[in-house]
Amino acid sequence: MKFDYFAPRSRKRPRGAIPVGRRGYRAGWVVPRAHRSDAADDDEPRRWHGAEPIFLPGIAKAGLPSFRTDIARSRQLYRTVLADGDCSSRLLRAPFRNRLQTKFELLGTVNHENDPQEIITLEFDGLRRGRIDAEDLWCKISWLSFEPGDASLRFRFSFGLVHYENVAADLARQQYSAKLTEALFPESALITRNRRLLSRLRQIVGRPDLAFVERIVYFNAPRGGAEFHQDVERGHLGVVYAQVTGRTFWLALAKEQLIRALRDFSYTPDWAEAVTRLPASGQQLTKVVRNARRCNALLDAHDRNDDLLAIINRTPQWNRYLIEQGHGYLLQPGDALLLPQHDVDRCAWHSVFCPDEQPGEGLSFALRSIA
Q1: What are the DSSP E strand ranges found in the chain?
Q2: Quick one: pLDDT band at residue 166, thresholds 50, 70, 90?
Q3: Which residue segment(s) compose the domain that 108 sits in?
Q4: Which pTM does this prediction carry?
């Protein structure tokens, strides 16, 4: 998509400009100016193999009216968590009770002290003909940040030990946790039962045997969102994100493009200005981003470089540079974004901003082959 960009302190700001910022950081304002076409693009398979994001405008819009009631109930569930820090008692009443009974048993709740962002985890067993068929299923409800004023949170569905298991190796439990998502959030069908989307994905990916697993339901609050990251996970092909309510603004590009953009940006006056705000290590960072191999390693490092994070997450000039290079995406209800995640070197990196004054819902489902 193409946008006109306006700096955070710009005096000339046209009507309809969309604010881009996150948790106290003002990145600027954007105004969309490109035509939105929902037609398939012959270039999409190339973009997929190149790990570039693929924008699918309006791909889920037709289904939104059918889930109006469910979407309203989901928002109320989100508000219940904000108010009480728990929603398990709500799940024991209609309509959630009716969706869960005979299929899932709510065992109880747990708090993991080693996860400071966790609010609560709901634990389930999957049932088949009244007997336990899948154990250790869970829905982990977590804050998206440590910022006191950020009410963004997510409902993540999976099973077993977090970060310790290769979840893709257990397709049966992956599918049970996926069905659990649909029991609590029926609007998941905007992705999972969307024939138009599935047909498009099969054409792009080049595989007929696709499934949606490891699902997350997001509620992005005003000035919330996510800093730059990737979502590579063993056994998964990528991630499909669909906007249900509200809007999100994204900066997304292939890792190779990100490394190249950092190098090119380092030769601009804006880089020199940004680096002057950093400690003395800013000069060293300049050398690193101009070396593709070292920059790649720095992005993958577990103890991420604070100076690099400051550049890519809190520098308006960098945001402007990416927007002008065509890496910005505005998702409105019914839009989707496909993020390839082939491996750590071939993946789409992305950053998310929430421009609205009310929380919005989004669905983020991993894509895998079931062959």
Answers
A1: 3-6, 18-22, 25-32, 54-56, 104-110, 118-128, 131-143, 153-159, 210-220, 225-229, 238-243, 248-254, 328-331, 336-340, 348-353, 360-369
A2: confident
A3: 55-253+330-369
A4: 0.94
